[in-house]
Amino acid sequence: MAGIYWEKNASVNEVRFVNNHFTDEQDLSSVIDAPIGFHPDSVDYRALIQAASSLPYVQNAGIRVDARGRMIIDIQERDPIAMLLEDSNRFYFDKYGAIMPIILQKAVNVPLVHNTGFQKEDGYLSGSIFETVSDFLVAARKNEFGWITISEVGYNPEEGVVALSHENGVKLIFGNTGFEEKLTYWKTFYSEVIRKEGIDQFSLIDLRYRNQIVTR
Considering its fold, how many domains does the chain have in total? Predict the structure, then answer.
């Protein structure tokens, strides 16, 4: 009987946001029309999720209403994978190309990417060059050594993806495909050669070829 009573007479009396790190609660409150006083069955949950997702860092959201009438909106935020340098502007983007503003108090340690041909429309980066660079960044993040040793990333038609090492700014050439394998080459070369000879002995390391690594 208590369950039936709750179901017929319950209403939302509070809205709480959880797991929002980059997204300020005030910004969420400003775009979401809190359904205070509404019965849970009469709430348009899809509209609430769409409103939350209009904010740059919000990718999706989950919503539940507990037995006390509290609506909990679980924010699923985008994960910045790099910082894009475009003229004098800088902003983050995720692996899907969604553009996110930099929040100074919540900086992220990601590589700096130079825009060398990305397309941009409706808050997203796109195009074949972007997809190639994004594939590289995703592979680099999976490879812990690659992620901590790369500081800047760019692209040119002749060499494909190029990067600068954190240490000494050595140019690393990765080409257009097979990034996981080439990042393994980079780790092996660093462990077996650079640690013995010193990174200051190299200005360029070309990792595009399966059976050899070209250096100078």
Answer: 2
pLDDT attached to residue 89:
86
Task: Give 5's pLDDT tier (boundaries 50, 70, 90).
Answer: very low
User: What tokens appear for 192 in the block?
Assistant: 């077996």
Domain stop point among 56, 77, 98: 77
Task: Give the pLDDT band of residue 1 (cuts 50, 70, 90).
Answer: very low
Map residue 37 onto helix, strand or coil.
coil
**Which runs of consecutive H residues, i.e. helices, occur in the chain?**
2-9, 25-31, 45-52, 128-142, 144-149, 179-189, 195-197
> In the Cβ-directed half-sphere of 33, how many Cα atoms lie within 13 Å?
7
Q: How far apart are CA 153 and CA 37, in angstroms?
A: 51
Q: Same structural domain for residues 93 and 123?
A: yes
16 with 61: CB under 8 angstroms?
A: no
Q: Domain range spanning residue 13? A: 2-77
d(CA 39, CA 13): 10
Amino acid at 61: A
Distance CA 42, CA 36 (A): 11
